[in-house]
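dude i think i finally got it to work??
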Amino acid sequence: MEMVTKRIGATLAACGFVVLLGALFSVPAHAAGASPWVEDTYSGIRLIAGGNKADAESLRAGVEIKMKPGWHTYWRYPGDSGVPPRFSFSGSDNLATVKVLYPAPHAFTDETGTTIGYRGGVIFPMRVLAREKGKPVTLRAKIDYAVCEKLCVPVEAKLELTLASTDAEDNAALAAAEARVPRPVSAAEAGLTARRANDDRRKPLIFVDLAAPTGQSVELFVEGPTAEWALPIPKPAQGAPIGHRHFGFELDGLPPGVNPKGPFELTFTIVKEGGAAEVKTHLD
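look at this
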């Protein structure tokens, strides 16, 4: 994680981060629809419960972040700069595993570059597995995230919520966020091909052809095999035939020691007007 640590440090310095910690006061754990909001000047965060059936294999929940108008927070890969959210659930009761899902993000461009994330607010859905099925799970979460406008503010929040099999007031909002999570599809199903356009350079150029209706808004993001990779955001390219879009990016931001001409797996996230998809493809 050395590259990520250095990159985050550079981002904090470049964006003029102000340290601001949102600490949760202690509240007794009980089954409820949501935890209390932990708020600061620019944002608030809480845990929410989804409607859960008694015989469900997993429990539905979410992390909700709200922001002042014009402010944004980051996706799991923040782009040119920024800090991705970090989730820890150590100390939870009756918890086997928790998986955090990421709704389709959007790109924001300003004088510092292009970042990837969410503006105004976001719910990160979660899939929670209990150690003992049928018994409540108490989530104790420590969440680190950042919100930015012209000023960037890192936030640390501690949240607690007990999940049980019950209806939930925020179930509709959580379901809408779940629907925005990119659907895993094959490269063939997505109509995506990625290939090296030029290997005769230190940073090979990757060419992407994507099936997409002409005139439709399309965003494309790419991630490497691990979080240590910091690949550029693919840029639209000219010359695509009708019904297709072309994108290109350099193989830059690789971890030290990785050969840019070697084979590896890339993950593409495609955000279209009708929904989002995630494609894993092998680059030979």
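Confidence is low (pLDDT under 50) at residues 1-30.
im so relieved honestly
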